[in-house]
Amino acid sequence: MIQLNLLKTIIVIGALIFASFVSSAELVVVVNKNNPTSILSRSQVIDLYMGKYVAFPDGSKAVPVDIEDDLNTRTKFYASLVGMPLARVNAYWSKVKFSGRARPPTQQKDESAILAFVMETENAIAYVRESSVTDDLKIVYRFDK
Amino acid sequence: MINKSGLLLRLAIVIGFASVAIGFLSSQLFYRVTFNQEVAITQQSIGSLYKTIAATAATAAYLVEKDLAQEVVDGLSTNEVVLNAKMMFEGIEVINNDNAFIDPVIFPIQSLFEADKSIGTVVIAPNIQYIEDKAKQLASDNSAAMIIQAFVVTFVAICVAFFLITRPMINIASALHKTTPGEGNRLSVPDFHQNSELGGLVRDVNVLLDKTQEQFTRERKLRQEIEALEKRFRMLFENSLSPIVLMEPRGNILLFNIAFEVTLGKLGLQLKKSYGPLLENLFAEPDKLLRSVELAFANDEIATGEFKLKTTQDSDSVWVQVVITSIVNDDLREYYQITLHDISKRKKELESLAYQADFDKLTKLYNRQGLEKQIEALIEQDRSFCLALIDLDSFKRINDIYGHEAGDEILVFVADRIKKTLRTVDFGGRWGGDEFVLLLDGADESTTRDIVARLVQRISKPYFLRKFNQNVAVGASVGAAFYPENSRVLQEVINLADQAMYDVKNIKSENPEHSLKFSHELNIQENKRV
């Protein structure tokens, strides 16, 4: 009985993950086009967003940006990146905040604000829908699966 | 009261030792099991302990937060099952204390954000001492319980053994101890043991007692029969008129009867343990006895014979028929049974019969047969002797006048004179009627003359017949012949003496003084006459 329940849970979780992949296919990680970094690995993206490193591989300071209002997009992004619901990501930050140097990403109100912030901030990094990417921006990471 | 080797004490000791040993072994085993269990439990609890700090540890490792990591290891170490804890990540090691890591549990720190990615390790040293103490505590509690249980089991086992086995057995044993085999007492089956082995034992013992009693009764009866038989045998033995002796071949007397003692008394002997082999010391001629017995035994026969016992000079001679049987006993030892039948009386009778045959009843002198035997004996020994034939004168007349009794009286008188006159080597006898014969051993003519002259003188003296108050006198005519000078043939010698005697008788009337004539004189005369 327990095994059956476990199986059901696995199936449901699998379905959810698949659905998020489909919908996140639209999200991409972008930087200012002047940023020397042209591509990042998934781990590098995680390290930047989860506060481990606050610099790009070339050593220049990085400013990760979170979307403030569009919780759907934010949820979709964290689910795709670290496989965590937003609540746990928040819990993580609330724990880490007290202990030291790691800081959560800065927040911009919506996608247009994000786009504007990245365009004017050379060392910013953000996630946007692929369709919103302009020439001033450079895609450094794709959720290609 | 308490017997050192008694059943109950032994049982108590055995059960006590066994339960203590079992308690000891099982507490050891329990300690091992408990320890292992505790170790497993500790590992499990360390596992769940880790789970509670896993996220924090992952965060600390991820962000390389040493302070957070320190908090994690310190937090882990406050738990009593944890001796020490450390975290290692990105070349950094955060540790709680200096205690060594023995049998550590190692947990890889899982990355928070990337599956299957290890970003460091948490190492936790379990508190073995604590686990041991706990296991020991449990084990000692268990041991105490075991010991109490052992005591209870021992006590119960002893009680059960005592009431169910030992006490009935002791009762049976003491009852059996008081029972004398062959008597009517029987054991009673203990309560609750009607169908048990003890009940069976008691019944078997009773059967045995029954059989023993039966056997005792039978044996007692048999013994009585044997005693009666023995009494009869003894009666037979003791009342036997003949002495009976059982002895060893060397002469030791083992058994004798009253008759033997009586015989010893007759012989004037003291009772002794031995009288030599075959009682030889009792016999007048032991050599004869020994030879006879040796011969008989050599032929596997019973030795019998008539032998004379050695007697003191003044008592009568004792003759016995001796029967000696060799008995070989069951133990292969040889014994002699000697029976002495007193045949003195019969011997005396036989002797008297022989006497009657050879002697004259009236005169107690040899009769003709006796004389002939003596003559033959002399001839056999090749002796020379003189045979003198005596005929009484006037005897017939006295017999006619005074009767036979007076005649007999005269004959006895003459015989008495003859006995008194003869030398010890000579024999005298009555030839028949009023004829007497003298056998003068080795006598020559002059010796013969002397003896005959003396005899005739004695005979010729007047004899007083009391009955008739009358003196009578008889004379004697004597003819003599010499052996072997006159003849080597006995009958011829007798005839010669007879002729000489008749010759004397013939000339008596004219020459009364002439009483003796030798046969050779007769021959001369006859020759002269012829």
Summarize this structure as a short list of keywords or feature phrases.
heterodimer; A: 145 residues; alpha/beta; 5-stranded mixed sheet; 5 helices; 5 strands; 18% strand; globular; B: 530 residues; alpha+beta; 5-stranded antiparallel sheet; 13 helices; 16 strands
3D structure, described in words:
- The complex is a heterodimer of chains A (145) and B (530).
- Chain A is α/β, with parallel strands linked by helices.
- Helices cover 46% and strands 18% of the residues of chain A.
- In chain A, strands 3-2-4-1-5 form a 5-stranded mixed β-sheet, with helices on both faces.
- In chain A, helix 1 packs across helix 3.
- Chain A starts with a helix and ends with a strand.
- In chain A, 29% of the residues are buried.
- About 4% of the residues of chain A have low confidence.
- Helix content of chain B is 54%, strand content 19%.
- Chain B has a 5-stranded antiparallel β-sheet with strand order 6-5-9-8-7.
- The chains are: A alpha/beta (145), B alpha+beta (530).
- Chains A and B meet through helix 2 and helix 4 of A and helix 1 of B.
How would you summarize what this structure contains?
With 145 residues, chain A is an alpha/beta fold. Chain A has helices spanning 2-24, 42-49, 71-82, 86-99, 111-120, and strands at 27-32, 63-67, 106-108, 124-129, 137-142. In chain A, strands 3-2-4-1-5 form a five-stranded mixed sheet, sandwiched between helices.
| SSE arrangement of chain A, N to C | HEHEHHEHEE
- For the biggest β-sheet of chain B, the strand order reads 6-5-9-8-7
Strand content of chain A: 15-25%
Placed side by side, the strands forming the largest sheet of chain A appear as 3-2-4-1-5
Number of H/I helices of chain B: 13
Cα-atom Rg of chain B, whole angstroms?
A: 68 Å
| Assembly status | heterodimer
Uncertain segments of chain B of ≥5 residues (pLDDT<50)? none
Let me know the largest β-sheet of chain B: 5 strands, antiparallel
**What is the number of E strands of chain A?**
5
The amount of helix of chain B comes to 40-55%
**Based on helices, strands and strand pairing, what is the structural class of chain A?**
alpha/beta
Measured between the Cα atoms of the first and last residue of chain A, the distance is 34 Å
E-strand count of chain B: 16
